[in-house]
Amino acid sequence: MDLDCFFTQRRTLLASPAASKAMLCQLDRELIRAQPPAEEDRPFEEALLLAQAADPAQGTALKAFFAASDSERQWQLAALLPWLPLPQAEAADTWLMARAQLLAPARAIALPAPWDGWWQAWQGGATAAQLLTLYEQLAEHAQERLAPLLVRTEPAELVRFINALAARLPALELLPWLGLSGLGRFVPWLRDFAANPELAEAARQELNWLTGGRDTERHERQLWGQAATPELLPQLSQGLALAWQPRLWAWLQPGGSGDHWTLFGGRLCPGN
Length: 272
What we know:
Layout: H1 3-14, H2 21-34, H3 44-54, H4 60-68, H5 71-78, H6 95-103, H7 115-124, H8 128-138, H9 142-152, H10 155-166, H11 171-181, H12 187-194, H13 200-211, E1 222-223, E2 226-227, H14 232-239
Antiparallel strand pairs: 1-2
């Protein structure tokens, strides 16, 4: 197997708005059948996939990969796979420690600021004031790293947070937050934005996330036109195009394993 060609094909698939998770699983099964040797000097994502594919059932190669890695790479692994041990040293990228804590809440990880406040907000349900404080602290990473908190925030507090952002952000920067909220009440607002030619493309993306392109009944929390229930999430994980899969990560925690780009697209893919 030409690994460079394989990884290029896989990256193209992951970015595709039309490719399905079934297509990713089929490609990953080809990697498992080929059984290429581990190459730890490859970029992290590629090296991890090779280790996963070497022994997807027992994870023996993955454990060896973890043991041979330095502390920072071990944290990268622990932030994806909750059954791996925790490194002893603090991570240079402390977000990895917060991710590891979120995957397995029973583990006690001494989180530095601002992640200690982030974790407290996740456990207790964030207030609008807490979200605003974290938004300012997390800067350009705020959308990705606040997403798990938005899922657990009470709708009234979440609306206060979004309204506060609306007072300080231009419309184009506000739009992703409306979609990330998962609140059906923002659908009419997004339709208004979609009528503006300069905002139409970005607004339609958030509308798709909330409505699936359908004019359906509104729900307090909704994804793809349906009430965001625990029963819906596995269906979306199987059915949504790969380009949408990263957004589901926040909704699948705690208890997730892997991510949209890991072997078989993470824990909910058939065959994993």
